[in-house]
Amino acid sequence: DNIAGAEPVTVLAHRFWQTHFAGDETVIGRKLIVDDQIWTIAGVAAPFDWHRTADLFVPVVFALNKWGLNMREQHSNSGVVARLKRGTSIEQARSEMELIADQLAAQYPGANGGNGVMVVPLRDYIGGSIRRAVMLMFGAVALLLLVACANVAGLLLARAAVRQREFAIRTALGASRPQLIRQLLAESLLLAISSAMVGVVVAWFSVAVLRRVFPAAENLGGIGVDARVFAFSVLAAALTAVLFGLVPAVQFSRPDVTEAMKAGGRVSHGGALRLHTRKLLVVSQVAIAMILCAGAGLLTRSLLEALRTNPGFRAEQLIVAALVPADRRDMDISRNSRLLTDIAERLENLPGVRAAGGINGLPFSNADSWGDFYHDDRPLPPAGKLPNAMQAAATPGYFRAMGIPLLRGRFFTAADGRMPPVKRDVESVMAYLRSAELVAVINESMARQFWPGEDPVGKSFRFGPPSLKGPRVRIVGIVGDAKQLGLDRPVEPQYFFSADQFPILEARLVLRTTQNVSGVAAAIRRTVTEYQPDAVVSTVEAMDTLIDRSLTSRQNNVMLLGFFSGIALLLAAVGLYATMAYIVARRTQEIGLRIAVGATAADVRRTVIREGGMLAFAGVTIGLAAALAGARAVSSMLYGVAASDALTYAGSALVLFAITFAASYIPAWRASRVDPMIALRCE
Question: Please, what sign has the CA dihedral across residues 444, 449, 452, 455?
């Protein structure tokens, strides 16, 4: 199947087989017409997620000439997937491939000079984009679990303190200390396992949300609650029950029988160790909450900085339509250039449309096309040292529609010429390019980087490596910089060919209009169909949507970490409130005496709030130090904000102190209303 002259065959993607053939098992051997090519269906692929956009798989021989894969200079968008032999490591494969790359560079210095090779595990390649985010969220969940466990441990301490008389009776009746520890651990384990079951159920219903947050995970096998997740949850619950249930179990498994029996059903004073343990748990909760709050604050500020970044064009009232021309073997490829330019001119006449244009590399649309070039008036650089910049082909109206300013020179005009009829194959296209002289507009970054201190307007360069013998390109204008890969990515040097002169396969139409997407979509499709019935407009959407989509990962990180930090703050507040209430209950007699000898209600409130503030101050200080020490973990995910940003840490600390005040005020208010006579009789 993969030799020249073989019958065209195809393997259907599983999704395409289901949607277009209803899963018909007799599909093998049937014919399928795509454009003007007849394909025989040879098989159906099993479901897999990596190539979700592919409907058909065909032998590479049919793409050699069509896509230029028979040329050494035309492999920038192709890759290789290999399965290693048993016992072969990635390092061995990488060493062998680097040797092959060096041999190709020596044999073909013009095309392969300076080109290297990257060998990585496929799982890392397709999942690398979410690895940092997943690890960050895993760490946040672990910290949140610690906060929850510390909170529960504090509540178990309070509960065990109330049950001191029960433990004393059990001890008096002959219960041993190991028996009491086992009882308390069993209660903790039952609580933890029950909570884990509830958590697994909630997680089951949260899978759809996680799939939207981490769409790239589908390439790694998807997200779901299976036996491994269930076992991990139960194991984590059991471990936390043992670790955090052990503290109250050990402390209360050796009660003072006499004191406990005297205390009756009232809360015992308990020992200093128990109180110090509760305070330590509160400090740890506040410290962890500070870490999560600071991390969420840094990511939030990064998102806000990205949203405030000027993209270099005006995104408001900008509509984008994806244009897919026909793709036939006998087609004149210059039709695509004429289609893009002529459709843009027709769209400008639509009601409410102020400007229209087209480009084959629209910003924020995963258009990542780079092209080598070299100066006409300078010596050739050594192999592998060719200048490189992003490249695209645009219509004259594209820059006006986008609002990208002209700094010097001019935009494209009809006098620059149009591409003559050219067949849809690489040989014909390359023959045209080698004989043509093109014009280009470059952005400010390219002018500054490759013509420093010069005016490049009127100068020329050669497109492609020297071995390609590409066209001479004359610079006619310089435009302002525009973000291409994302608001949080740097501006890259870029040059724009005239769409009238450069071969185009697919493109985007851009319209500046007062109408919304639904109001203009039908008019765009109708205009395209009237001009070229076999062309297709696949999507119509607002430019703002593309920009928002480019920030999805940042928004998801902020949402999840903000959610976790919010829960941590709530748990820390509950833990602090419970501890302060416990302290007030222990000090009821002392408070009554203070009031009896003249202390005011305000004095009592200040005393209690001051004690809560000291716990919060210790927790914030420890959490601040830990957050600064671990800032490196999120530094690579930040934009426009330093990992040690003082404003973020100060804001997080203020939030925690405010929550501390709120959590301490109610116990303080209750303490200030203690009746001295009742307090003195409580013993």
Answer: negative
Asked if 620 and 286 count as a contact pair (C-beta separation under 8 A), the reply is yes
Query: What is 307-335 written as a DSSP string?
Result: HHS--SS--TTEEEEEEE----TT-BTHH
Which amino acid appears at position 330 of this protein? D
Q: What is the dihedral of CA 52, 58, 60, 66, to 10 degrees?
A: -90
Task: Give the neighbor-by-neighbor strand order of the sheet with 37-44.
Answer: 31-34, 37-44, 9-12, 56-57
Instruction: Say what the pLDDT of residue 404 is.
Output: 94
Determine the average pLDDT of the residues in 433-449: 93
645 with 301: CB under 8 angstroms? yes
Q: Provide the pairing of β-strand 437-443 with 472-479.
A: parallel
DSSP 423: B
CA angle, corner 667, sides to 666 and 672, nearest 5? 95
* C-alpha angle 365-368-371 in degrees, rounded to nearest 5: 145
Q: How close are the terminal C-alpha atoms of the chain, in Å?
A: 95
284 vs 222, residue with greater confidence: 284
Provide the pLDDT confidence category of residue 501 given band limits of 50, 70 and 90. Answer: very high
273-310 burial: b if 16+ Cβ within 10 Å, else e:
ebbebbbbbbbbbbbbbbbbbbbbbbbbbbbeebeeee
Written as six digits, the tokens of 394 are 């645009």
More confident residue, 600 or 3: 3
Tell me the one-letter amino acid at 117: V
User: What are the φ/ψ torsions at residue 14 (nearest 5 degrees)?
Assistant: -60, -40
